[in-house]
Structure formats: structure tokens, C-alpha cells
Amino acid sequence: MSLLSIPNLAGLVRDTLRAPRPTFARLMALKIDRVTLWQTLLLVVVLSIFVGEVSNLVLVAMLPADGARPLLLTPLTLGLIQMAILVVSVFLIDWIGRSFGGKGRFPDAILAVAWVQFIMMCLQILQFVAMLLVPPLAGLILLAGMVLFFWLLTNFIAELHGFDNLGKVFGMIVMVLIGVALGLSFLLTLVGVTVPR
User: Fold this and answer.
1) Contact of 151 with 20, CB cutoff 8 Å
2) SS3 of 30-79
3) Which of 24, 31, 32, 53 is nearest to 158 (CA)?
4) pLDDT per position in the chain (197 positions), as tens?
5) Which of 24, 32, 29 is nearest to 159 (CA)?
6) Extents of the domains making up the chain
7) How would you class 17 by CB atoms within 10 Å of its CB: exposed for 0-12, middle for 13-18, buried for 19 or more?
8) 131 touches 138 (CB < 8 A)
9) How many CA atoms lie within 13 A of 90 on its CB side?
10) Which of 85, 118, 119, 103 is nearest to 157 (CA)?
């Protein structure tokens, strides 16, 4: 049975939620080549944008006719931004992990980002369904998704680089996020981009 079959993917998602590190170790053991992993990451981004666009179309259609419409980025722009962020994340996970003594392989850094993104996409679908059927539950899923994202990423990076202390890995992730946010803010200021008031 193919790894990409729905039963296999569903089983891997379930196992990842139950035991992130052992499941990610199983995925790394597959030794998927770098080209396939980049293609997989691109595919996940495309699917994520598709799910987001379908959600937006449905939700906008549910708004009152005279209600204000949200300003949305085009799918291409959103996809390029998301892909750029994920590619930068791959290199940061590999480079910073190695600078702290990690032993991870670069292709497995791609795998970590792609698999986290896939699970977040599954959660995105769940949140959309909840928004249609039980709207108050959608907010809880969003909060749970944020916690899940950091939990999975911390475990994946720890398994990737052979780190034992999850607390230190999480602290490293937070510091990197703050550094990237500050650097991006500084760069945008240099080029004259300001936040509208």
C-alpha cells in the first residue's frame, strides 16, 4: 500500500498526535530524496491555499449582502509568501540546529516542515467544518492548533538533531521567531513599508 494512501496518511497523523518523536523517526527512516521532499512541501502549500480559498469563498458568501468584505491576498501572492516562509524555516532548522551541536540531515529538515504543514492543513479543514457546524468550537480549534504547532515542531526538531531537552528546543524556536520578526520589521522599515493605522 502506498504511503500516500488516505488510510496510511490518516494513520500517520494519528500516530504523530500520539507520539510525535517516534513517528517522525519512522518518517526519517524512509530516507526520502531531497527533490521529492521539496515537491511534497510545494504540494502541501498548494493544497493549503486551496483549502483556504474554498473556506474564504464559503464564508464570504455567508456574509450579509450589505456587509463589509474582507480584503484578501490573491492565492498566488499568499502561496508565494507561505512557500518563502517555509523554505526559510527549513534552512533555519538545519543551520541553527547544527550550530547547537545537532546532527540532523538537511532533507529531514524539509520533511519536518512539510509534515508539520500537512498536519496544520488537516486542522485547517477541521476548523472550517467546525465554523460551519459549531462556530464557537472553531476558536478553540485555532488555539489548540497554535499549541499543537509548537509541540510538534519542538519534538520534530529534537528528534531531527538528537536533542533530549524539549524545553531548550522550544526556547530556541521562540528566540528564532522573535529574531526573525524583529529582522523582518527592520527590513520593512528600511524599504519604507509601514503598518497602516
Assistant:
1) yes
2) CCCCHHHHHHHHHHHHHHHHHHHHHHHHHHHHCCCCCCCCCCCCCHHHHH
3) 24
4) 455 567 788 889 999 999 999 999 999 999 999 999 999 999 999 999 998 888 878 777 766 666 555 556 788 888 888 898 899 999 999 999 999 899 999 999 999 999 999 999 999 999 888 888 888 888 898 899 999 999 999 999 999 999 999 999 998 888 888 877 777 676 667 666 554 44
5) 24
6) 6-164
7) middle
8) yes
9) 22
10) 103
- Distance, in Å, from the CA atom of 58 to the CA atom of 35, rounded to the nearest integer, reads 35
Encoded amino acid at 48, one letter: S
Residue 51 identity: V
Supply 187's cell numbers.
527590513
Residue found under cell 518518517: 27
Residue with cell 497523523: 13
Helices then strands, counting H and E runs in the chain, come out as: 7, 0
